[in-house]
Amino acid sequence: MVVRTHGFDRSAAMTAPSQSLAFRHHHPPVVQDLSVAGPVRAETLGMALLRDQLVDGNDIVSALTVQNRRAGRLTDFLLARSLLPEDVLGDAVARHWSTDRIDPMAQPADVRLLDRVGAAFCLRHGLLPWRGMGGLTVVATARPEEFERHRPHLSALLGPVAPVIATGTAIETAILRLRGGPLAQAAETRVAASESCRDLAGHRLLGPLALVLAGVIALGALWPVVLVWAITGWAALTLMLSTLLKLAAAAAGGWHRAPTPDRTRILRPPVVSVMVALYRESSIAPRLVRRLSRLDYPHDLLDIVLIVEEDDKMTRAALADADLPPWMRVVAVAAGTIKTKPRALNFALDLCRGSIIGVYDAEDAPEPDQISRVVNRFHQRGAEVGCLQGVLDFYNPTTNWLSRCFTIEYATWFRLVLPGLQRLGLPIPLGGTTLFFRRAALEAVGAWDAHNVTEDADLGIRLYRHGYRTELIDTVTREEANCRALPWVKQRSRWLKGYMMTWATHMRDPVLLWRQLGAWRFAGFQVLFVCTLTQFLLAPVLWSFWLIWLGLDHPFAQALPHAASRGLFGLFVLTESVNIALGLIALHRSRQPISRWWVLTLHLYFPLGALASYKAAWEVVGNPFYWDKTAHGDFDEPKGG
Description:
The chain is an alpha/beta fold.
């Protein structure tokens, strides 16, 4: 009797004589030169699987049809559709290529051979230099065609090489077991030191900050009126510049929705890898798997990498119980000197198969056709477009007042300001999720700065410094709004601390930054970062002047000329009018079920940001690389989505 599970014939799999456990453990592997096989191997592999009754006839016809149309790998299609278990497919591939299958976990590789080629290179291409044998270096691979493509490079490093088969999971696990520690260390220093904040530790900033503080104190003691004028004038100037930038952005790209580019049929759609970094997210893991399973991009071309810290046993256990589909896999990041999201992304980047790299957050719910839209947009654009940023929104906007204000703020930023910055040609500080990169561009700039707690904003600036552009794409990812006051302050303080570190990092050599960005982008960078930080830090100074217009005493009222006071009042009215108008437009654009009257309460929302800025300023000196974790999973999508 033949027993079938997911389309594979257990009786045929168990009767493969050359793949018995005893053979693999007590005999040297059979190796063969694959270069003589010719280009028809994929089709004949399908026929061999059919002949051995491992795959149903309809399934193999469907697989071969898809492979011919997309030029993908037959083995990837079979695994993505769960038509064959990985071990059984590995045995079949080994028989087809007249070689043996090994288990590199039971038969460890020679680490010296691995180091000659490089662990990162081997992870990326699914290769494992295994052992020297009879004048040859035996290299394990799950994809023989990949071995042939890299044979010249391998031969140059190792001498004559020959392949054996191992499963992709076994190869990846074996490499990480042997070299996980060094790979984790490399992930911390992937960005060049001159463009990283890792050398800007607190004590290096303490001196300049102490000089500034001493100057402020001395000025206040000697000429207090001058100090009042200087602080008020700077706060007003940055407020005016911020308001003008918002207006310019809205006028340039925000008043009307940009037309969606025509969808074109791509003959050979690429493999897309999407990384999701999780830390202490055991409660949200099952929901994440369910949401990502809605993506309609072909699963044999989709590579979802769920990244967890090695010591995060609860999240790893939750993912182990989540019944992951074959196109999702878990990567554990080895311990290092820091524990941040960008470090985890850097570590997992070399394990990604795709030429397009995406990033989601743990609580994200992307639109089902999002990956297809991203692939289509990259296909339409030139190589200078290195990144696409999607729109972020929330699936719990009406939880309370804080979630409503957060939703309005995000709608203004992602639907008006960022599209306008793109139209104006200014650098775009990226959001931390719904990001998609051309892999070549991402690797050219050194990927993420592992020490920067707003790695997204920093990477956005670095892309522009190296000649790449970011475009906004009209696809929405919904996530969980942080709607509790203390967690909100902690999250915003991390963002503001990252803005401070990002500005300090890129301004270490202002002349070089000017040359790389040009005058217009350099000015935009200053307005965006300096004005944002100033407005949060000095917001109470400006708010205090409302006392005058409420008929109350102000301690510095007499220090300002009457004309200056009237000018401040006009600036405040203009700013509030602009913020309300943009909030109304953005909320209408987002179609969120929130009353428009809530826009009027934003003036009471931003004082929380001032509190966050003081926490951020303190941590810049005392704990610059500390990642204040935001908890997720308190709210779910409507109707249990």
